[in-house]
Write a structure and sequence with these properties.
Layout (H helix, E strand, L loop, with lengths): L1 E5 L8 H14 L4 E5 L5 H5 L26 E2 L4 E3 L4 H6 L10 H9 L5 E5 L6 H9 L2 E6 L3 H20 L8 E4 L7 H14 L12 H6 L6 H4 L4 H17 L1 H5 L10 H10 L4
Parallel strand pairs: 1-5, 1-6, 2-4, 2-5, 6-7
Antiparallel strand pairs: 3-4
The structure holds adenosine-5'-triphosphate (ATP) and magnesium ion (MG).
Length: 279
């Protein structure tokens, strides 16, 4: 089971959009995907048409001691989900012990089985929930729009990830920045992408997500961009991001996504081309 956190301390950088559509793309690539909404505001939960679930049917259960009850997983067409509840906000005040960063890791190990990917969507803040996500994860995606504040937020998030790796989760692999809401016509977008590539090299994913209206209107009542218009550029972009993530999961996983001819898959060559650093 490959556990992946999506986070950026800055709000509105495409975390939830990435969580939904990347999960849908991974699912279309044959992966069994569980999404866990750890944002007390629960936008992902709402966007997937699940409203405000009762606390005992939400991700709050991960922070309680009873692992004998079945996890509150709901099945959607695109993927499975443990939704969020506003009760997470109040519960946060009680999660103030050093060991309170371990709940999600321990819950996943004890109670969640049978998934290829578990993806954790987080709020735009360093909270006990986002720290739990990072402690439980093998990989992190930091969605970043190529604008001043999201880039600063992404760099702050990068520092948090370094701290978590050093102190709490040495198994956390190198994070990946994912540019979202990219408008190729804007000079400042090009400048921020060059700045990040120059500073962080190949941990900036070469696949990007361009601005796409279909993405912003598609996640309603449980649908994703792939249901609304599978040819939209948001769908194409998230399919490419999914390929990159499958490569992060390891070579055995990647073997499964290509045609296998000549030992090099279509997606492998596409991904290699996509991730070759430009500088
Ligand atoms: N590639 C895109 N093209 C156009 N609009 C987008 C794109 N990605 C996200 N959006 C829109 O930008 C807004 C913010 O996106 P999203 O909710 O995914 O960000 P977030 O980082 O999860 O925000 P928060 O920090 O509040 O949780 C939403 O209205 C979403 O529809
Ligand atoms: Mg969000």
């Amino acid at each position: 089971m490959f556990t992946l956190t999506v986070c950026n301390h800055k709000g509105g950088t495409g975390k939830t959009t990435t969580s939904i559509n990347l999960s849908a793309a991974l699912s279309l690539s044959g992966k069994r995907v569980l999404v866990i909404d750890l944002d007390p505001q629960g936008f992902l939960t709402r966007m997937m048409g699940l409203g405000e679930p009762e606390p005992d049917q939400s991700s709050l259960v991960l922070f309680q001691q009873d692992i004998n009850k079945p996890p509150p997983i709901q099945r959607l067409t695109a993927f499975d989900i443990i939704p969020s509840s506003p009760a997470l906000s109040a519960a946060m005040r009680k999660l103030n012990q050093p060991t309170d960063v371990l709940w999600v890791k321990e819950y996943l190990q004890a109670a969640v089985h049978g998934y290829d990917v578990v993806l954790l969507d987080t709020a735009a803040a360093v909270t006990v929930y986002s720290l739990n996500a990072l402690v439980a994860s093998q990989a992190v995606i930091i969605p970043v729009a190529p604008e001043y504040q999201p880039v600063v937020g992404a760099e702050q998030t990068w520092h948090t990830v370094q701290m978590v790796r050093k102190k709490l989760n040495p198994g956390l692999r190198e994070e990946r920045f994912l540019f979202t809401m990219v408008d190729g016509r804007k000079k400042n977008h090009r400048a921020y992408r060059e700045y990040m590539r120059g500073k962080y090299g190949q941990i900036v994913l070469q696949p990007i997500v361009r601005t796409c209206t279909t993405l912003s209107v598609s996640a309603r009542n449980g649908t994703t961009v792939f249901d609304t218009d599978a040819t939209a550029r948001g769908a194409v972009d998230y399919a490419n991001v999914a390929d990159a993530i499958i490569w992060m999961m390891g070579p055995q996983e990647a073997e499964l996504i290509g045609d296998g001819s000549s030992g090099v898959t279509d997606r492998e060559s596409r991904f290699r081309a996509a991730t070759t650093p430009t500088r």
